[in-house]
Design a protein that fits this description.
Blueprint lengths: L2 H16 L8 E5 L4 H12 L3 E6 L3 H11 L3 E6 L5 H15 L2 E6 L14 H29 L2 E6 L3 H4 L5 H21 L4 E8 L6 H13 L4 H9 L10 H13 L8 E4 L7
Parallel strand pairs: 1-2, 1-4, 2-3, 4-5, 5-6, 6-7
Amino acid sequence: MSDTFADSISHLMSFLKGMSVSIQEQGCVVTGAARSIGLAIAEKYARDGAKVAMIDINPEVTSQAERLSKEGYTAQGYIIDITDQKAVFDCFADIEQTFGPVYALVNNAGLVDQRPFEEVTPEQIDKIMRVNVHGTIYCSQAALKSMKTLKNGRIINFSSKSGKTGSALMAPYSAAKGAIIALTHALAFEYAANNIKINCICPGITDATGVWAEVSKGYTENLNLPRDEVVKKFTSKVPLGRLTAIEDLVEFVYFLTVSGDYCTGQAFNITGGREMH
């Protein structure tokens, strides 16, 4: 390799590094962090040197945080119901006291339900909205107070392909995820002056997750198809020929956390081409 070429590569790497933000020692919060996507995001943050607060209603979140701590990373688990605003505010106050100001929040926690629209009950609608929408609002309210002191921050909300085009047998869920997109737009406008970037991602069907397990079970029952046929049916709709992987989402969330400094108010599709608007 010539000295000139080596110097060019070195300058390029320095330039790219300058475009990213280090999250080392930064406070990062992930909801729905006991398992699956949320856990994978928390692990990514922790291994990059962040101080990670892991939130979930599932008690398993504490053992996962303890595991990361034993591996030498900084992580703490919090068992709370994100639909309880006071519990959320108290939790974030404790996080800030332990880790300092919150730089990044990933609103990953969510709930899915599948049934014919005319069979949906008020209780089911309320539960879907409270977990997916109210929980995101409460956690964002708490985090924004902290981020404003930093005059910097990132919020990454989880919407869905269903929030853009809807999904049959999942009307309340689709409505809730559509609300997340609108919320992301509104907050991005409101907090741009504080240098806080707020985006959301819209995954397609994500393999090896509890949500897909629940959805595929529902389609098996409602469409009267074997599970293998359900998987084949939905995979065939994806131009890139596979379902979304957890790693696809983790890497994009990480990009929005450390790069994407000129991105705010966006709803990014992570669908393999299944959703293109």
